[in-house]
Amino acid sequence: MGTTYHLKFWGNAAATPVDVHNKIESLLEQFDKQMSTYRDDSELSRFNAADGHEWFPVSADTAHVVAKAIEFHKLTGGALDVTVAPLSRLWTFDAAGKRKGQPAAPSVEQIDQALRLVGVKHLKVRREPPALWKDQAEVEIDLSAIAPGYAVDLVLELLQSLGFANAMVEIGGEVHGIGLRPDGTPWLVGVERAGKPAANFIEIVPLKNLALTTAGDYRNLRTIDGREYTHIIDPRTGHALPHRGVAVTVLAETAMEADALDTALIVMGADDGYKWCVEHNVAALFQIGEAGSKVRRTPRFVELLREGEAPAEP
Q1: Segment 195-215 mean pLDDT
Q2: Is pTM, for the whole model, over 0.85?
Q3: Per-residue confidence (pLDDT) for residue 100, from 0 to 100
Q4: I need a labelling partner for 284 at 20 to 30 A (CA). Which of 40, 65, 216, 270 fits?
Q5: Cα 23 vs. chain centroid, distance in angstroms?
Q6: Per-residue burial over 138-158, b = 16 or more CB atoms within 10 Å of its CB, e = otherwise
Q7: What phi, psi does 213 have (nearest 5°)?
Q8: How confident is the model at residue 165 (pLDDT cuts 50, 70, 90)?
Q9: Distance between CA 211 and CA 217 in Å, rounded?
Q10: CA angle (49, 152, 120) in 5-degree steps
Q11: Helices 270-280 & 255-268, crossing angle to 10 degrees?
């Protein structure tokens, strides 16, 4: 997946750290072969290169994640869309584009052309036997907005199967904790103040059988025609979002759910995203403006903080 992972676990002397490491490596290697866009031989890359109008066999996990991505697409009104790759290339936020320096913004015609390949309406998922289908050869799937979270959940399940009832797993910034630390207190995660070093936290969050992810528009920026744009594309309009200094942290029961929602909420915008979270009882923290100058916590987020009995303010 082009990122790193960290684990903390305790409680089972029968499984050595070496045993755990080997099993985790094997799981993640298999996961990479399924859903990575960094390798040409993954299931996803081969599906992206395949012709349309034919069922393409994939693993049950890949089919499951794509099916969930389609559900979240509908739930968020299209703010999450895993077929956004043509637009990312158009705005040169892929690896090749970054090497080209400062490009011009794409034309209306180019955006309209790319949008013809964007949308889950182009996809179908079959669970048994697991397979994917697309209506055009050029349609692509990129699961980077949801797959890392699912990988976190899988690793945590593996640790539980090995007898570890207390663990915290982090992959690429997506975190999920179960049980407690050895001293009997919850696992704690610091939420960065937007745009500031990692040591500068705006919130300390307890993870009592919860997952946490954060998306922000302040890390991956490009200057196009003299204006700063983020790497986050609004799949509904085809435009890259301008840099606004916004970050959204989501708490959920699974890392896949939190991962799917954080970027979608950035796309919705701070106001509409907050209203959507309240309506759907989602626990989220919104940082708005440079260095998190304005912070809004949804009622569910505040509730989970209190349940965790951790300090709300560091």
Answers
A1: 85
A2: yes
A3: 52
A4: 65
A5: 24
A6: ebbbbbbbbbbbbbbbbbbeb
A7: -140, 155
A8: very high
A9: 21
A10: 40
A11: 140
